Amino acid sequence: MSDKLKGQVALVTGGARGIGKAISERLAAEGASIAIVDILLEVAEETATEFKAKGIDAIALKADVSSFEEAEAAVKKAVEHYGRLDILVNNAGITKDTLMMRMTSNDWDLVMNINLKGTFNFTKAAMRPMMKARKGKIVNISSVVGVMGNAGQANYSASKAGVIGLTKTSAKELASRNINVNAVAPGYIATDMTKAISDTATEAFMKLLPIKRAGTPADVANLVCFLSTDESAYITGQVVNVDGGMLM
């Protein structure tokens, strides 16, 4: 373990599984304590227990990210437990993929409420302790489809494009308080979510990749970690793709 984040506290939404879990582990490897947020408390607790067995200081918190009240309560609990909040990673997200002609209003609202509104809710909730400390790092997980669009993902791509706009605005509003806000835009990453994609769609993605492999959660986590350390102190309002060269 390193100590680039020693003594710091990170809150990761959707931090119990997939990319969020990889991010939590990577930040912990640099010395951070981790507040794991998930809508299912038992899942967050399982991950926290697993982390503690590895010597990681972690707590589990339940929150529906689409609710500002629950986001605010989760941030409050993390600050009460650790006495501070240095890093926020807005990772929680879902897909409800289908062509627009078949997409229901519920499909649209659910994805927007979790992916975009959830990012807003936790950013707003975390602002106060970070502004008070005059220091903080916020990393939002967007997607390359938020930049390029993708057939069958109108709701998802719109939500992730919204995350990019929110990132840039947050960065401008918070820069004077020494709070950096950046977005990471993963491409085709091998996760449980992408396992659900058809073989035909997977082959189409692979043809777009100069680096002929799917990305891993660790590829995303490594960049998130860099953007969470002091090494990225002069970087804010940026969107960095982790996509094997898919979008150049």
Give an overview in words.
This protein has 248 residues and is α/β, with parallel strands linked by helices. It has one domain (9-189, 218-239): 3-Layer(aba) Sandwich (Rossmann fold). It is 48% helix and 15% strand. The chain has nine helices and seven strands; from the N terminus they run βαβαβαβαβααβαααβ. It has helices spanning 18-29, 41-53, 68-82, 105-133, 145-148, 154-174, 192-195, 199-207, 217-228, and strands at residues 9-13, 33-38, 58-62, 87-90, 136-141, 179-186, 239-242. A seven-stranded parallel sheet has the order 3-2-1-4-5-6-7, with helices on both faces. α2 (41-53) links the parallel β2 (33-38) and β3 (58-62). The mean pLDDT is 96.
Mean pLDDT: 96
Measured on Cα atoms, how large is the radius of gyration?
Answer: 17 Å
Measured as a percent range, the helix fraction is 40-55%
Task: Count up the domains.
Answer: 1
The CATH class label is Alpha Beta
* Poorly predicted sequence stretches spanning 5 or more consecutive residues: none
Count of individual beta strands: 7
Number of alpha- plus pi-helical segments: 9
Question: What general outline do the C-alpha atoms trace?
Answer: globular
C-alpha end-to-end distance: 34 Å
* CATH-scheme architecture: 3-Layer(aba) Sandwich
Which strand-content bin applies to the residues? 15-25%
Q: What structural class results from the helix and strand content?
A: alpha/beta
- Enumerate the strands of the largest sheet in spatial order, edge to edge or round the barrel: 3-2-1-4-5-6-7
